[in-house]
User: What shape does this take?
Amino acid sequence: MKIDILGCYGNIKGDFKTTSFLIDDSILLDAGTVTSVLNDDRIKKIDKIIITHTHLDHIKDLVFLVDELVMMGRYKIELISVEQVLNIILNNLFNNLIWPDFTVIPSYDNAVIKPREIILNEYTEINDITIKPILMTHTVYCVGYVIKKNDRGFMFTSDTGPTKNFWEQAKEEKGIDFIIADVSFPNRMEELAKISGHMTLNILIDHLQRYGLDDKPIFITHIKPIFLEEIIHELSQLGRPNIRPLIQGETIHV
Assistant: This one.
């Protein structure tokens, strides 16, 4: 499995892009950054979009991606998530007020967007990978994912505060090479992190220790650009080579 990190920060500022990972060239995991970094040759290969939750930094480029695909003559793309997340997108984004309703354009039976509901804590096949959504702790309905190909893969917290169920599953799940975990704020802002449904390094380390994951490779993501240097400094003081920041533009192979 190949994962291209199109964007991985908690805000748009200068060259910093928001969350979107491209898996095996055809599957998007969140759509915070797509059309602003991919050319048309790469865009037209995308046929599945998996969404964690509906905050703008995770869905912003969804509307522009769909528009670009239509302009290129592509009329089919699956939008995949749990029922609660899909309902928010369909009722509040593709509603002919914020953006055209591409679930019925050009017709109901031949619509551009085909919503595909998946079930919490159950595996679903998407192309040649499998995904399992896990309910996270955030300010809106949000799921993290287990994503595997040929019984190996990774886990992604998406945006989350302390979430017992995710880390319990991370402890038991087989074939997980690494975890991509939210660390949005520095340790001094732990209270705000919890209120807003995010983590600090201290919160992350507590979970890793509590669930016996001290040696698991961890990529931290969703860092607010304004706190990047501070969080990198905190990380340097930990002496944990298994934890490093996710880097925008890098490609990870499983």
